[in-house]
Amino acid sequence: MIMGPRDHLNGEGYRIFQEGLKITPPWFVKEVRLNEDRRRLDIILDFPKGSRFKCPECGCECTAYDTRIREWRHLDFFQYATHIFAPLPRIECPTCGVRTVEVPWASRRSGFTILFEALAVELSMSMNVSKAAKKLRISDDTLWRMLRRSAARALEKQDLSDVFAVAVDETSWRKGHKYVTFVFDYWEKRLIFATEGRGSDTLALFADHLKRHGGDPMRIREVCCDMSPAYIKGVEENLPRASVTFDKFHVVKAMNDALDKVRRRESAHCAELKGTRWYWRKNEKDLSAGQRESLERACLSGACKQTGKAYRMKILLQRILDASVGLHPEDARSQLKDWCHWALVCRIPEVAAVGMMIKRHFEGIVRWFHSRMTNAMVEGYNSVLRAGRAMARGFRTVGNVILKSFLMAGKLDFDFPRNIWNPV
After folding, report:
1. Which of 413, 362, 407, 417 is nearest to 384 (CA)?
2. How far apart are CA 376 and CA 189, in angstroms?
3. Does the N terminus or the C terminus of the chain have fewer Cβ atoms within 10 A?
């Protein structure tokens, strides 16, 4: 229902609204009503009798045979909430039958103008949805529905024909082993697929998604992931031509965890290990003089020989995998084999387990020296998502997790008009 006017703007003012809204014939601004008590502005549009409109299906031009008043929320005019009203015509196309005309200022079946949706999406990219909804003066549920519509339209147009290298990782979104698998286009640094779970079937779903959007699973040549058996199986079954690179971060992390277990085991009878937990995890160049001295003292102690030995093995492993060292792939392969042999005969069970892990996944680990692929980008994005999830006090559904992920990392083309919220 259009509100009763408190004050009518004069006719000259209509031209400003006509140009500001970019209203084109046959549409024109018929009336503008301002209600100061409710801090609201209503803009009423109309079209001349006998105007012809294009069929949204085939483009055939027809005259309207009836109309229905529709309302759209628009961007605020100064401090006033702005609403657009227009008689939405229906036409009877000789080819397509009865169709409702599409209007240039809003998407089909949306109660908001395109510019309002553009602002809503932009705000939701940089803040949590509840805060964005508060700023827009709409409910959380309304904003989530709007975002789902906008993202669905953008994803429908997604072109994956050039994708040949992907990074795969998972993140937990709720307690109780609730996971989401993400697949990134590695070279474009964008999220291209997400689904609930972390099993091998997630890669089968990705392969189907790839086909639907112009891609080809046989064209995927490089995959970077962790050493999850499910992902390995999924790649073998669904991306058969891909070479797998195991993220070296997970290799070093496994060695760090093994070193920490050895330290904890020996700390019960080695006073030099007290208070040094985080020193052992640091890179050599990041240690302060005092920290370096503490580690040297612990390494020389007869009571914690295994901790010192495990630490030296960790440093050597890091040097082998360090890109700045610039090892030739064949030299790296040889040195990593020697390291594995040392780990298996060092008589430290925790380190021997790391050696066995590297031996099992040897080809995928040394593949890094050819592909130079890591999951650092994905891990960085996951940390941002976790921070956003904490700010939002968590997400209610896995669909919201995936939607927010695409807003933050999908680089989606929403096809909004180029404006101050979506610059060139």
Report:
1. 407
2. 11
3. C
The two tokens of residue 179 are 């996971």
Nearest to 154 by CA among 119, 196, 192: 192
**With b meaning 16 or more CB within 10 Å and e meaning fewer, what string describes 49-87?**
eeeebebeeeeeebebeeeeeeebbbbbeeeebbbbbbe
Using CA atoms, how far apart are residues 298 and 304, in angstroms rounded to an integer?
7
Strands 80-93 and 40-46, by their bridges, are parallel
Pairing verdict, β 165-174 and 222-225: parallel
CA distance 199 to 197: 6
Q: Does the domain spanning 165-246+374-391 belong to CATH 3.40.50.460?
A: no
| Cα 86 to Cα 163: distance, rounded to the nearest angstrom | 44
Give every strand in the sheet of 222-225, ordered side by side: 190-196, 178-185, 165-174, 222-225, 243-246
Amino acid in the structure at residue 376: A
Distance of alpha carbon 227 from alpha carbon 249, whole angstroms? 11
CA 299, 301, 307, 310: dihedral to nearest 10 degrees? 50
> 26 preceded by cis ω (within 30°)?
yes
- What are residue 45's DSSP bridge partners? 29
Please compute the mean of the pLDDT values over residues 146-159 and round it to a whole number: 92
> Residues for the chain: how many in total?
424
pTM of the complete model: 0.82
Q: Which pairs from 298-306 meet CB under 8 Å and 24+ separation?
A: 298/270, 298/272, 298/273, 301/270, 301/272, 303/266, 303/269, 303/270, 303/271, 303/272, 304/263, 304/266, 304/267, 304/270, 304/272, 304/273, 306/262, 306/265, 306/266, 306/348
Count Cβ atoms within 10 A of the Cβ of residue 24 and give its class: 0-12 exposed, 13-18 middle, 19 or more buried: exposed
How far apart are the C-alpha atoms of 305 and 298, rounded to whole Å?
8
* CA-closest candidate to residue 225, choices 183, 284, 278: 183
- Pull the structure tokens for residue 271: 């006073």
For 352, phi and psi rounded to 5 degrees? -60, -35
- Residue 283 clears pLDDT 90, i.e. is over it: no
Of the candidates 254, 236, 252, which has an alpha carbon nearest to the alpha carbon of residue 244?
A: 236
Q: 289-317 pLDDT, tens per residue?
A: 888 888 777 776 666 788 888 988 999 99
In this prediction, residue 13 has a pLDDT band, given cuts at 50, 70 and 90, of: low
State phi, psi for 218 to the nearest 5 degrees.
-70, -15
DSSP H helices, 167-275, are 201-212, 229-238, 248-267
Per-residue pLDDT averaged across 378-399, rounded? 71
Q: What confidence score (pLDDT) does residue 214 get?
A: 93
Instruction: Indicate the pairing of strand 243-246 with strand 97-100.
Output: unpaired
